[in-house]
Specification:
By secondary structure, the protein is mainly α. The chain has a domain of 76 residues: Winged helix-like DNA-binding domain superfamily/Winged helix DNA-binding domain (Arc Repressor Mutant, subunit A, Orthogonal Bundle). Helix content is 48%, strand content 11%. The protein has a 3-stranded antiparallel β-sheet. It is globular and about 60 Å long.
Length: 181
């Protein structure tokens, strides 16, 4: 069967599946109806097909089911461990596969930014947003310490539940070795 032969990169870097995964980030649970509201530009048949693919690969897990007008409505939650391309899978990718994956990632980032602007965004000061690139020097050990501390800090914030005044935010990172110029 075709679905079982999908690698982690193929599974997660499909543009619609990537948007579905992003919709669940932050511990969200959503029904397919709520997901349709979150992604109104995705045709319903495409959305249901891609949700089924993600559920078949344990990226989305069913956490509740209920009958609605004779059909079963499922509520899903992201299985974050399965929604990650691990180091082993990334190491097996060719340079061209990495280029394609990164292109998909950047295209999705651009689409996220377009949706932000289309929803009335654009005042990054007001919205506490931004985009920038910074450089630093670190040994492998120092970088490992930095990443460990960053993950711990992010984990504290990611564990917070939605509530009054809390706006869902996306933090996107790219970490690359930079050639010395």
């Amino acid at each position: 069967m075709g679905m079982s032969s999908l690698g982690a990169g193929d599974l997660l870097l499909h543009p619609v599946r990537l948007r579905i995964v992003q919709a669940f980030l932050g511990g969200r649970t959503l029904t397919t109806g709520e997901l349709r509201e979150a992604l109104p530009d995705v045709p319903a048949a495409t959305l249901y097909r891609q949700v089924a693919t993600l559920a078949a690969h344990d990226v989305l897990r069913t956490v509740a089911e209920r009958r609605v007008r004779g059909a079963v409505e499922r509520t899903y939650r992201l299985n974050e461990a399965a929604a990650t391309v691990n180091a082993e899978a990334a190491a097996a990718m060719s340079p061209d596969e990495h280029r394609q994956a990164f292109l998909t990632f950047v295209a999705q980032l651009l689409a996220d930014f377009d949706r932000y602007l289309d929803a009335g965004g654009g005042d990054l000061g007001r919205d506490l947003g931004g985009y920038r690139q910074s450089a630093f020097h670190a040994t492998d050990e120092e970088l490992t310490e930095f990443l460990t501390r960053l993950r711990a800090l992010f984990g504290e914030y990611a564990a917070r539940e939605p509530g009054p005044g809390r706006v869902r935010r996306l933090l996107t990172t790219v970490l690359l070795p930079a050639p010395d110029s």
